[in-house]
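Dear Dr. V.,

Thank you for agreeing to look over these. As mentioned in my earlier message, I'm a first-year student in the group and I'm still getting used to reading structure tokens, so any feedback on how I've presented them would be very welcome. I ran two proteins. I've put each sequence directly above its structure. The first is here:
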Amino acid sequence: MISNEVREQLQHIVRGAGLQRSTDRSSTIRSLLVGSFGADPTVKGQFESRAIVKERQNEFLKSYAVQSEIWLASLPSDSQYLTRGGESKVFMDLDNRNVIKVNDGVYYATWTEYLTSLVLHNLFFPNTAYSLVGFVEDGGNLNAVLRQPFIKGQQAKMEDIRAILTFNGFANTKRQDYFNKEFGLVLEDMHDENVISRQGVLFFIDTVFYVI
């Protein structure tokens, strides 16, 4: 069940506002983007038309990262490489307790949408919260670099995923996509490879949120 504190934060997000009393880097940078570029709801039919906004945000984020000393010179070493998902390269962190995800935000029309998705993930699933390490250029494209706890376990059962999302107000709309009517949130691609089960607890390790 969504707590009153999380509910209050969600209301700020869906209104396109910055989060109050939040000091994590994802929220801070999202607030900067909202202040400079706005936070329009996602309209997938406008994906291509928003490309110019994302290009402007690329330059904004590069400049911010350099000034804030979170611009990374390179990717983690090849020896740390684990796999690649739909939008992320995944590396094992040097501490062997976290993974490093290098994400190009390709699923999102703007970096504001991407940062909003990260903030939503951290509100709903704090046991697999992302920490934004910084930004890096890979193949000529801007990428966000994230740290996330490394979870060992088995792929979750689809019925268990559906049950916990339904309990938290998300209705299954088609295949592995869900919608929360109260907040106007879409949660996509919730298949078993994106959720780990360990000792009866589900860990959501990859989510794609949109505010519509």
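The second protein is here, in the same arrangement:
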Amino acid sequence: MNAAGGGTPALDAAASANARWIREDISWPAVEPIRGRQDWSVYDDLFLGAAQRGIHILPIIDEIPTWASGSTNTWTMPADPTAFATFTGQVTARYGPGGTFWRDHSDYVQYAPTYFEIWNEPWYPSFSDPVDPARYARLFKAAAIAGRAANPEARVIIAAEWQYHAANGSWRKWVDDMYAAVPDLNSYFDAFSAHPYGNGSVDNWTPGNGDAFETRRLEVIHDTFVAHGATAQKMWVTEVGWSTCLSGEECYTEAEQKQNLARFNQLAHTSWASFMAAVFYYRLVDLEGINPTNAYWYGAIRSDGSLKPAYDTLLAALASSL
């Protein structure tokens, strides 16, 4: 599950829901806002607090400090991935199996993450400037090499989508364009992630144009990787959810949220079980202070602490882990 912010209340809420995995960012600018001055304390507290509650973390390594990119946008996708790759190696060396952090917390070594996700949703302008699958693929390759070199037990997850909106206005295939840039991409990733948010029911499928962003496109994403020879790597759904916002194309009633969550979990254990290794539901608790027409009401718990109908369904999904 995607926790609600990483602090103690969020960890307590996750533990109360019997979540055993959460997904959290490890932001390079947060660790090293000034070149050469690193402070890992926030993430040390996060990993320790999660472990003390019996929770594993899937780390997402992302963002670029302004001093490294020359841009005020921390989501700048660098043309030269060398520095980001170095940071990735520092993360896997610290928090991966046998990492330096766990040497000081030997009672919790079983909670050291093996898998590390590289970047969040690089196909969206909000998370990548520019949106460029070739640049992302090269960054991923460099990060994977450095992460594994720093910790041979580390495994890395590449971020994938079906289509993306190219700079010229056309819709292009994300996975195909990554392979065009890095033909030997299969050598560098151990799994691939997808975020199959979608319009309407989980069962809807009307492909054929760039607007067909429906949940079942994850089947196309999987098939595309297989077509490129990635037959051993499995899919991790590292975000999926249904917002109970009040108006908009991607808003659902609370009853629909519950229904879609149950159906997705059913398919994950049946039709998709052969290629799906993990599912992280987004999110546990609604963000506070969010306008009700905003799409970010994904929680199974309202911001006032009351439970939505989907909460019991989420508990059942968490109990039936893949």
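From my reading of the second output: The longest helix spans residues 133-150. The two ends are 13 Å apart (CA to CA). Does that match how you would interpret it?

Kind regards,
E.
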